[in-house]
Structure formats: C-alpha cells, structure tokens
Amino acid sequence: MIWSEITIHTTAEAVEAVSNILYEAGANGVVIEDPEVLHREWDTSLGEIYQLSPDDFPQEGVYVKAYLPVTSHLGDTVEEIKERLNQLLLYGLDPGKGTVTVAEVKEDEWASAWKKYYKPVTISERITIAPVWEDYQPKHADEIVIELDPGMAFGTGTHPTTVLCIRALEKYVRPGDRVYDVGTGSGILSIAAAKLGAREILALDLDEVAVRSAQSNVKINKESGKITVKKNNLLDNVEGPAELVVANILAEVIVRFTGDVARVLVPGGLFIASGIITAREADVKQALREAKLEVIETSYIDDWVAIIAKKS
Length: 312
Hints:
Helix content: 25-40%
Strand order of the largest sheet: 10-9-8-11-12-14-13
CATH superfamily of the largest domain: Vaccinia Virus protein VP39
CATH architecture of the largest domain: 3-Layer(aba) Sandwich
Strand content: 25-35%
CATH topology of the largest domain: Rossmann fold
C-alpha cells in the first residue's frame, strides 16, 4: 500500500494541538521529531546506544508527522489541515512556520526504516524495554524486560508520557489488581502491568491497527493469560470494578471520560493519566475534581505530565 507522509513544521508549544489536527484528519498516530532529544541525558548504564543524527531533526521547531492512505480525497484533507493550522493563532497558539509537506512512502519501507534507531531503553531501576529484533539479556535477576514490536501503532516506550506511565505503574500496581488500559497502542502499558503482578488487564483501543499490534506484543511477552485486547471507544460499555485505570492519550480525550473512570474504579482505586502537555495540566485536574477523583501525585518529564488520582 502507498501512504502519504504528512509533515508539519511547528513549535513545541503547538505539538499537542497539531497532533490533534492530524488525528482528526484520520491519522492513527503521530511521529514527533523534536531536536530537544539530541541534548537529552539518556541513561546508558546498561550499555544502550542511541543512534540519533541531527540530520533527522529540524534546526529549529518540531516536525509532527502522520501517515494517511493515498486516496482521491487526500488533496482536500491536506487543505483542511492547512486551514486548521492557520486557526491556531485564534487560540493563542503559535504554529511557527506551519508548513505542510506531503511525501509518498511504501508501507514496507515505513514499517522498517525507523528500526535502526530503536534500541533497548532503561525505563526505571527494574524495567527495560527491548525491541524484539535486539538480542537483549537482562543485567540482573529482578529486571523486567518488555519485548516490543511497535509496528504501526507508534508505541515504542521511549516517549516521556509512556515512561511516566510505566514508572507510575511500577509504583502503584499491586498483585491481584484488575487494570483497564485505555488507548493501549502497542500494548506496552498492559504488558508492564501484567509483569508487575496485575491479575487481569483489559486493553482497549479504537484503532484496529493498534489492537492487532497489542495482541501481537501480548503474545510475544507470553501474557495472553492475563491480558485481553479489544477494540473499544474509551470506557464505553465497560463495567467495573477495576483497581486501576491507565490512559496515555491526549488531554482533550482524558477530560471527556473522567466520569467513566470514576464509575469503573473501586473505592480507593487509582487513575494514571498521561499524554498531557503542561499547558493542559490544569484542565485535566479540574475534570478529575469534577469527577470526584482526588489528585495524589503529579510527575513531569520535559513538558509532559502524568497525573495520578484516587477515587475516594
């Protein structure tokens, strides 16, 4: 299949809004190329090598990329994207250059070209994420290794919001917990919860590509006995009880279903919410308060936030 790579050159502050524009245009996920990662201090204590080249990043600003199938409507879609980018100024967001470029890529090239950049990543003292094509051996007996083949679901585990979620799961998952993973993507958070001792995990995603990717990764990690992956819109028609709900999705989406989170959680149950840029932190916390969920912890990496809330 031939896909179109839509690249938007924007600013760091507009990344979330631009990503949302691309999602609403039909993208299943986005790729964010921020030159900030070139200067980040990576944990290389276990010998990981991050093969990042400055040539792959803009000299200033951020590239946000998405992939759409080539159809007769693609031209109209691109024009709609450009129009919505221009409207960001009305909401006080600077889109920067705001240029939109389109390039064609073949699915097999797209699915494999990025693999050379993806190496084992140490998430915490206990958890390491390793791509299935790397022969990674645990460095100590207590190390938890999650093997991952992200495929086209864009969930490699290296994004700050995923790291924040995994660290929160490591802190809060208790043996025997039932967990709902909303917007599971590659299934990485569900797999982490299972390996940390959760009894039963329901992984939900509206995108069929993500569902297939998560199902594959669950099998790779031999956690099919604990994890069920389903196509579903957020927590629609999902009944409780659950001890923990985790969602690594856009702030705009989180604020829409905090009431459902409160509905399915047991008293004392926890909600780990991430995918939130700092500019939207207050909005998410307000939605949590309105749903009678008490914020008990907030953690940050760069401009990203994870919020842990508790049902009274």
